[in-house]
Prior knowledge:
By secondary structure, the chain is α+β, with helices and mostly antiparallel strands. Helices cover 34% and strands 26% of the residues. The protein contains 19 helices and 28 strands. The strands form 5 sheets. A 6-stranded antiparallel sheet has the order 3-2-1-6-5-4, with helices on both faces. It has a 6-stranded antiparallel sheet with strand order 9-8-7-12-11-10, with helices on both faces. Strands 14, 15, 16, 17, 20 and 21 form a 6-stranded mixed sheet that branches. Strand 27 and strand 28 form a beta hairpin. The longest helix is centred in the middle third of the chain and has 38 residues, at 273-310. It is elongated and about 110 Å long. It starts with a helix and ends in a 10-residue tail after the last helix. The model is unreliable at 117-129, 536-548 and 700-717 (pLDDT under 50).
Amino acid sequence: MRTEDVLAAVATGLWQWDNTTRVVAFDAEAARLIGLPAAHVELTESEARGRFHAVDWVEIQGIISLAVAEGTLAEARLRVVNEEGRVLRTLRSRTRPFTRDGEYVLVGTLEEVPQPLQGTSAVRTSVTGDWRRNREAFLLDAGRALAEARSTAEVLRVAAGLSMPGFVPSGLAVFRAEASRVKVIGHQGYGPGEAAPFLDLPLDAGYPAAEVIRTGRAIYLPSPEDYERRFPQAWKQVAHFGRKAWAFLPLINAGQTIGAWMAGFSVPVAFTPDERSVLTTVARMLAQALSRASVHESERELTVGLQRSMMPTLQPDIPGMSVAARYVPTGGGLDVGGDWYDMIPLPNGKIALVIGDVQGHDVRAAGLMGQLRIALRAYASEGHHPDAVLSRASRFLAGINASETEGDDTEPRFATCLYTEVDPATGRLTTARAGHPDPAIRLTDGTMLLRPTAGGLPLGIDPDTDYPTTRLVLEPGETMLVCTDGLIETGGHDLETGWERLRGIIEGHVCDEEGVRATECLEALADALVQGVHGPSSHYTTGPLADRREDDIAVLLLARESAARTGAPAARRTVLTIAQAEPERIAEARRQLRLLLHDWPDPDQVDSAVLMVSEMVTNVLVHTDGDALLSAQISGEHGARCVRVDVADGSDELPHRRHPGEMASSGRGLVLMELLAGAWGVDPRGEGKNIWFELYETDGAAPPAQASAGITPSLPD
Length: 717
């Protein structure tokens, strides 16, 4: 025997509710139980909703939401009502939700609950079939749904799904007054092209909706005869729909009629005071929802237009490089703020990447950002060096602050900024920083390293501040990330923990699929960074997901295309300049080397490398008049890798061995290198020299090719 036959024998029907398509399917037995002919039927959600008591419908919505969240059964009792709102029978529903892509499908059973025998002590449900309670539950449900609608399309979708207790509309339409015209902005219950004659009418047309908008008074037509008598011309165009009653109600907000709402019925409706009260209340809620949606859409359009005018278009055709950017405004107020990025073609054929953050998240911050962005673009286009560009921009913002705050209580605003001049041919980056977070580099093997850069005060604080520059090299296959603090510190993170969170996202991003272009991979990384910071929206609230954005976010990614694959493992490399005037950057050099060696298996070798680097850089700063250029690289297969560190300077004087006494404070650098390095040497150059050392992951001696990579000098005793 078939399962369907067994279920029918015990008066149990099957139903399926698809939350994606908003279609509810009933088998023959379930259709009989809800008062329809005993045959398989598919109803829209609003049609199915009209078969049940509104109080029960509201209750089952909460039960279903809990079942979807917990993955449990949803059990409820549902009263079936007829078109007059009279309760026919009570059904017990047991359904199981199956989720997919955030939506769900309910599959379950319906069976009739027998009425208790007369004289038994069975307790009936406390909820009665009273029409007024049914109406109150419907209005509560409709009000909640309309209050959550954020756009005109959502409001119209909710309006189309309204199923009023005791009288279910078979046709709905929402009209809006625009100048001297009446236009349909949404309709339900009409076939393709059937509503065309009513989509755009003059305001003085002899049509009920036009009269309602002109007068602000509702029109109730309880029979076709009433319609034909009052609106004979319009009746000729609606008679073929076969409806029996109509209600046209004004949509009034703040004392102004903004449109009209039509509900058409396939059965005669008397429009009693109770029924008119329900229709009037729904019309008021619908008018308020449409007004809120209109204001929200206007603000959104203003925001998008303002932000598009301020955000640049990235140059897509940089030879050998790819660029991706994201801007995400904060969740509060207008979605504009002080964060920005820019990409500027320079006269010398290079490009400038700029990212910055003006203090604040309001319209004033957005206005200052627009002015500052234009000023930076002008200074860069004149061909100024990065430090000069930021110096001029700082004086520009200080001047704006002085003029705006003079004789006013307005506080001055400052801005952080990172300006990078990029040479696409060589990958050389020249960076100047004004109080902004440092850039990060994703190396070819996926490791993320922060690149410390020299910097000055934020723009606008001191007009005479200097902004020293830092030179970096973006190697083939590497990616540079620059961002505002909203990406780092959102979610209660400080600068350190925020970068650690980003490190996990960057190092975990893999894009090795064949056929995926570098640009597409970079775009995917930008999306992953923003999504990783936002995280899933709050799931502790009902209705629309809560927005957790705390600060504006601007992200700029620059990737240099990798060279042709040779099958050899990618090298991990870092470069750092330590200027004579910045001895404190020796500590940063040690930190950079430790980050580079984060997965080196021997901690003693890591300590040795850090000690030797400290000695080498210190010797350059003490014994020469120039800067030190540190370069460190790890190459080779895991288990047999080599780390090589080079420190170059501009002095021609070669190092020599000394014999320091026990109390001497210097002279031990070469002794340490002989004791700790696997190999080391000095390479004379045209101007200056390069001192290097190597350490090997294996315990054996250096391979001949590596040991001969440099020149080990014959040092005097």
